[in-house]
Amino acid sequence: MQRSQKPPDPIERKSLLYKSGLGFHCINHVLGCSHGCRYPCYALLMAKRHGRVRDYAEWRRPSIVGNALVLLDRELGKKGAAPPRVHLCLTTDPFMVGHPEVGDLSLAIIERLNQSGIPASLLTKGRLPAELADSRRFPCDNTHGISLVSLDEAFRREWEPGAAPAAERIAALRQLHEAGRRTQVHIEPYPTPSIFEQDLSRILAEVDFVDHVFFGGWNYSSRVSQDRDEAFYRRQSNTVRRFCAQHGIDCELG
Ligand code: SF4
User: Fold this and answer.
1) CA 104, CA 94: separation in Å to the nearest integer?
2) How many angstroms separate the CA atoms of 125 and 128, rounded?
3) Residue 4: pLDDT above 60?
4) Where are the beta strands (DSSP E) in 76-190?
């Protein structure tokens, strides 16, 4: 996708690196996300609740944090234990389709973290850049992840309208795997048949080269009934567990 208009002006923040409620360190160096997922996106709900964006349209026009690298330098220079790993991102996407300024800043942040010996873990619904294979620029054992819940373009257009097609996400991930980099796939939120009918085994077969699989359900919608769908998710979890065991892949169930 080509960018159709000039990106909004950068914003300034007072801090960057933080420890999330999930127990690991994160950096979210962008406000908003052009992918515009409609599961809905929890980050969008929080941004609206806290008055950081007005609506969905504004959310899809992302602003980078202009002072992100200055903040990171300062925060990494402080005394105290360096974080063991830093995740990009929890509330935005580091390789947003149509926004090269986001990807460039993400690469600069990963490079800066690696200079301090801190590996990054990355998760995107965009295309992981091939530059990440460069072990001189990125010397740490970074983890390169894609979020992937369907191979189907009709699903993507309805639920992840601005994200990269699944085939492009997988191709970029495979390229990094073939370059010897650590890879993972994050299969969440996985739709129930009432949302989208598909075969999980087909998705798994496309990513049989990864080091790690995370699988989790679709928890946000009234179209999902925990009782009715419990048996469905139990079966899907068993499929993931068996697949990972057969392929020597680390398995994590949400
Ligand atoms: S890619 Fe992530 S941050 Fe971006 S809209 Fe989708 S769920 Fe939200």
Assistant:
1) 9
2) 9
3) no
4) 86-88, 120-124, 143-147, 182-190
- Which one, of 30, 108, 107, 112, lies nearest residue 65 by Cα? 30
How far away, in angstroms, is 56 Cα from ligand 1 center?
12
What spacing in Å lies between the alpha carbon of 35 and ligand 1's midpoint? 6
The finding on whether 33 has its CB within 6 A of some atom of ligand 1 is yes
Distances (CA, A) of 8 to 37, 61, 82, 102, 199: 20, 7, 33, 12, 40
1: confidence class by pLDDT, cuts 50, 70, 90: very low
- Which two tokens mark 228? 């009715």
Quote the pTM value: 0.94
Report d(CA 107, CA 95) in Å as an integer. 9
Burial class (CB in 10 A: 0-12, 13-18, 19+), 195: buried
* pLDDT surpasses 90 at 78: no
Alpha carbon 244 to its chain centroid, in Å, reads: 21
Tokens found for residue 234: 């139990």
